[in-house]
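Many groups now describe folds with learned vocabularies. In that spirit, our science desk offers one protein's residues alongside their backbone shape tokens.
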Amino acid sequence: MHFTDRADAGRRLAEALLSEAPGLRGAVVVALPRGGAPVAAEVAAALGAELDVCVVRKVGVPGQPEVAMGAVGEDGARVVNQQVVDAAGVPPEDFAAVEVRERAELARRAAAYRRGRVPVPLAGRTVLVVDDGVATGSSALAACRIVRARGAARVVLAVPVAPHDWAERLGGAADAYVAVHAPKGFRSVGEFYRDFRQTTDAEVLAALEPSRGPGSSGCAGYEVPLAAGPAELAVPADPLGVVVFAHGSGSGRGSPRNRAVAERLHRAGLATVLFDLLTPGEAEQPRKVFDPGLLGGRLAAATRTVLRHHALAGLPYGWFGASTGAAAALWAAAEPDTAPAAIVSRGGRPDLAAARLSLVAAPTLLVVGGADGEVVELNRRAAAELRGPSALQVVPGAGHLFAEPGALAAVADLAAHWFVRWFPPGRGSDRARH
């Protein structure tokens, strides 16, 4: 079986999905760009579904880049195919060098494709992960992990072509697998296409364009220039306050988890700010990634800058920090010239700011996963040291990434209530506070 091109493959995949996987109306289609975007666009059109992207990058064997020895994805996702690594004899330092290069390209593509848009909310929904084919499965595995982390209730991995044993190879990565063609004599994805030219960034954007709507939850969107790149402001009508996000290591302003939380905060009447704490080059330097003083200084400086924007004038502000970003928020909150009205930490590392915890007066909510044993204990100790009001909230069964169904949604709800509770009345105070 051969497909004319990716659009033809997408139409045939949509037919297979409608016949083999009923009940997909209302699902979200998530494309793996570049090649998966035109395929996914056809599937989304046939199903009448929302379309989004999940940006992943293959980590290719040095000298044989077409052979995947792993993959990296948004929000720090990482997959290593140890069998390929061992067979190719790739030492750890060579793998790391390729990974750094691919993460830089991943960040560029994520920014180019999303263009400041908030990802489509996935919590509690069926998600179709679509690519133009599966070979080793590393990229598909990374994508499935990402959408589960964003709260997908059911994951269906769907491709035009894959090896006959692909479902066994990928194990429980997805809840269901659909392929138009899964031959035993599989060698490469490209051999099943008459036209398998590389998809361009422009073609990815064109595929996504029909699904692009207005800003998140009716928010007005703005950009503010900062040293490491633009800050993205999303401001609902009559906001109660503004929450500035501090991302964790291996992440950035495009973090799907932070964007999902931001979407929930918008519905609570809160403006949000997403920005990069580090430049792409700095993000590759562990010394800077785990430096709470540097990160906290950047967070405080960025907050001062964005608060000068006319859309945020007079609003109280708070910080939402994840992992090392939580340490940055706590560090910055101890500075005499900062005054956050509230802080929320998700899976945070407060131990990195241990010397300053007793100086933090801002009301602080520490949210941790019940299955994240060591981090639970670190946060329990931190709660006892904080000077201001604090609470420790454990999400039962959740791990460090809150990838379990409903876990991230629980974090978002807790954060929304905490900020609304502690933000002082002012602009937007006529909204119901609960």
